[in-house]
Amino acid sequence: MSRVLGWVLLGVPLLAALAGPLLTGPVHAASVPLLPPGGAHPLGTDVLGRDVLALALHGGGSVLALAGGALALSYLAGVPLALAAVGQPYRWLDRWLTRGLDLVLALPGLLVLMVLAATGTRTAGALVVAVALLQLPAVVRIVRGAALDAGRRGAVEAMALQGESWWRIHFDYIGRGVLAPVAVDAGGRLSLVLYLVASANFLGLGLDPATADWAVLVERNQEALFLQPCAVLVPAGLLVALCTGINLTVDHHLVTGRGPS
């Protein structure tokens, strides 16, 4: 049951984000603001007079792009960094790297985003880099732990005795050994990254306030919650469904030890 529910909750917002823009035309203010649901506008209009249904179908792409970019950047930086730290001969470098990243790990993510917003740095690129840096310490820790376990295998010693290069041992053999833990971690971490990206958009960080983005729509229409609930509840519900669906699907994968069938 949880498997089916997870895929339904995950599939609906993904389908809306990927196929939605193909089903509707450009989103623009074409009606009276905060109209209730009716014939011309099945879900009503928002504070700018835009159709809520069209906004919901257009607003997922930016969320997925920002979250996916931040997640990919954290692994592109974290995996090689962890493998290099484990493979180098100086233990003190590994120790100091871990302690330095622990300082970043201790920083509350929302506090960092609030400080970034207060400095006036509100671009989407800055948001992606900030979220990726917040995830970097945890990624390095997970990859480092998996690499230390893979590095104790007899095959590593055998490859070293055969004269294999340091790069081949640590970035090829051990690197392939950490792929499974990284894949499992990425599934669960995506929901955390989505939460941070959505929270940043609530703060006005990353995207223009007029953007058709689910998180921006919630922030922009929150004061009209009781006048036109659909303008807030529909994009908020899609965000909640996406995060919940990811968590249920990953949990099922971890419990059963196999991919969904």
TrEMBL record:
GO terms for cellular component: plasma membrane. GO terms for biological process: transmembrane transport. It comes from the Bacteria. The chain crosses the membrane at residues 53-84, 96-118, 124-143. The keyword Transport applies. Keywords: Cell membrane, Membrane, Transmembrane, Transmembrane helix, Transport. InterPro entries: BP-dependent_transpt_permease, MetI-like, MetI-like_sf. It is a multi-pass membrane protein. Residues 60-250 form the ABC transmembrane type-1 domain. Gene3D superfamilies: MetI-like. It is found in: Cell membrane. Belongs to the binding-protein-dependent transport system permease family. PANTHER family: OLIGOPEPTIDE TRANSPORT SYSTEM PERMEASE PROTEIN APPC, PEPTIDE ABC TRANSPORTER PERMEASE PROTEIN. This is Peptide/nickel transport system permease protein. It comes from Saccharopolyspora gloriosae.
